[in-house]
Design a protein that fits this description.
Elements (H helix, E strand, L loop, with lengths): L1 E2 L2 H11 L26 H14 L9 E8 L8 E6 L3 E4 L4 E11 L2 E11 L13 H5 L6 E2 L3 E7 L2 H10 L8 E2 L4 E2 L4 H5 L1 H11 L9 E11 H6 L5 E9 L2 E10 L7 E9 H8 L1
Antiparallel strand pairs: 1-3, 2-6, 2-11, 3-5, 4-5, 5-6, 7-8, 8-12, 9-10, 11-14, 12-13, 13-14
Helix pairs in contact: 1-4
Length: 284
């Protein structure tokens, strides 16, 4: 087991530019009606923990072109919690598009289920997005933080090896499995580019004048699909262009896609959030 500390949370939020106040030890009290009584781990940080633990245990699933993570968030992980990942036996599913191998997983924080879902390896891009109508060449010519068509937000980040190494540290990962200068090895963890969409979502909210203090949002679920073949070729300072937009008219249901060097996306994702006030109403 691994015990979560504030230092782990601070490293994660600094490495990914996630400025959500839920993770800030000096300002979490500013969140209206915050029930957590302290900071909580980043949702994507927990995803990186899942990725690292699966890699370190040598998963029974062989890597395919796409890795897929489907998470449902149940309870927060807080400072002092002990993290423990339980992974079930692998299963194979045949679909019209290709084959997928899956493992069900449960992440526990001090014995309480924190998140649950699936880790998959897939022959095909299993998460679709309306954002794929845009091209890499089209968005790469636009300025950072551009609002396209009224509600599509462009955020540009760079793949930084130092940030990735720190991010791995925040999730108790053995960084030499990914990055080792003596072996001339750099392979970014899957959740490093995926995690950068958190800052994109936050900056989009600010651009649309959403009040993140009075009306904070929390994760309900994440469905993430990343291209391993592209990931293997990423280098330091490669530019990641991300688009974030709502799915139809639901402000809490977002889709995100990111492009680096290929015309096809590095990743596609769907994220569902809910207002903290809705959670409080359900628990009252």
């Amino acid at each position: 087991m691994h015990t979560l500390t504030q230092l782990h949370i601070d490293i994660a939020r600094n490495a990914t530019d996630d400025f959500n106040l839920f993770h800030d030890p000096m300002r979490w009290q500013r969140i209206s009606c915050n029930p957590f009584r302290g900071t909580i781990a980043l949702g994507f940080q927990l995803g990186l923990y899942v990725e690292a633990q699966i890699n370190q245990s040598t998963s029974a699933i062989e890597q395919r072109q796409y890795s897929v993570y489907e998470f449902t968030f149940v309870n927060p992980a807080k400072v002092g919690d002990e993290l423990n990942l339980v992974v079930k036996r692998a299963r194979v599913a045949q679909t019209e598009k290709g084959e997928q191998q899956s493992q069900r997983l449960i992440l526990k924080a001090s014995g309480k289920t924190c998140l649950m879902g699936f880790y998959r390896q897939s022959d095909y891009l299993s998460v679709t997005s309306s954002l794929l109508k845009y091209s890499k060449d089209q968005i790469s010519k636009m300025a950072d933080r551009t609002l396209i068509d009224g509600n599509v937000f462009l955020k540009r980040k760079w793949m930084i090896v130092g940030n990735a190494k720190n991010y791995l540290l925040s999730a108790f990962a053995d960084q030499t499995r990914y990055i080792d200068e003596f072996a001339d090895k750099v392979r970014f963890p899957q959740f490093y580019p995926l995690s950068l969409m958190s800052s994109a979502m936050l900056e989009r909210a600010q651009a649309l004048n959403y009040d993140l203090i009075q009306n904070p949002m929390i994760y309900v679920s994440q469905n993430l699909c990343i291209d391993n073949e592209q990931l293997d070729k990423l280098k330091s300072n490669d530019c990641l262009n991300m688009l974030v937009a709502p799915v139809e008219s639901d402000s809490g249901h977002l889709t995100c896609a990111g492009w680096v060097n290929n015309d096809s996306p590095l990743f596609c994702a769907e994220v569902k959030l809910m207002p903290l006030s809705d959670m409080l109403d359900k628990n009252s």
